[in-house]
Amino acid sequence: MDKLTALLSGLLFGAGLAISGMVNPMKVQNFLDVFGRWDPTLIFVMGSALAVTYAGYRLVLNAPRPRLAPAFVLPALQGIDERLIGGAVVFGLGWGLTGFCPGPAIASLVFGYWPSVLFVAAMAVGMVLARHLFLGSDETLSADG
Amino acid sequence: MTDFTPLAGLTGGILIGLSAVLLMGGLGRIAGISGIFGSLLGRWLPDNGWRLTFILGLLAGTVLVSLLGGFDSDSMAFPGNPLSTLLGGLLVGIGTVLGAGCTSGHGICGLARLSVRSMVSTAVFMFFAVATVYMMRHVIGA
């Protein structure tokens, strides 16, 4: 049941990325081109996603526990450190360079274009590399998301 | 050139929000794609089953919408060249592990939890992404 729920959640996420056009990296890069060919669509995507998530989280996080699991797994990390900032800087550079962030890049694999495949493969290498270099373990990953 | 499509954007965003709420209400998990995908890369974790079905759903949802005519993949265009794509992928992989999240985990789920870490992260990666595109398109003129 939990796997089915995750499947449905993924389905909604992928559908949302496709309907909004976010699987097209040029559209995302045009959003980032504030001083040029600006396409503000991404604000509307993030805005409505954020509004629904904010309202929905208030409802579901009021329950003692999730419906299909023993407990909510929420990020335990607190505080701002150089790792958080450095990571965001590096991620921002890569996002700007390509117009791809992880969700849309993975979703775009279904269309079979080579840049999607190359990007996701390089991203996977980068993730494994960073885990070994910075986290010293290949098991613990991402506390925030 | 891409068209400004606010209604499609709002609709897609609502679906993404519902996805995040469903995953939290059902499994108690953050819908952060870099964390979900990255966890599938190393040794198999006991709770990787749901992560795998989530990613399969992500792919299926994209296929479904394009089959129903909600997205035209012929409209897709890819900035840059093989070298910039490779470099960008590496940077996104390294950055999301180091910074513990991406646009979904920090930008949507984290902001919805009013997490200060996520607010800082989102502001920083947005700024550097905009700055990178500005450099590429208006300074270097690529």
Automatic annotation (TrEMBL), chain A:
It comes from Aestuariivirga litoralis. This is YeeE/YedE family protein. It holds the Pfam family DUF6691. InterPro entries: DUF6691. The chain crosses the membrane at residues 42-63, 84-107, 113-134. Keywords: Membrane, Transmembrane, Transmembrane helix.
UniProtKB/TrEMBL annotation, chain B:
The chain crosses the membrane at residues 12-40, 52-71, 83-102, 114-136. Its main location: membrane. The keyword Cell inner membrane applies. Keywords: Cell inner membrane, Cell membrane, Membrane, Transmembrane, Transmembrane helix, Transport. Signal peptide: none annotated. It is found in: Cell inner membrane. It comes from the Bacteria. One of its GO terms (cellular component) is plasma membrane. It is a multi-pass membrane protein. Belongs to the TsuA/YedE (TC 9.B.102) family. This is YeeE/YedE family protein.
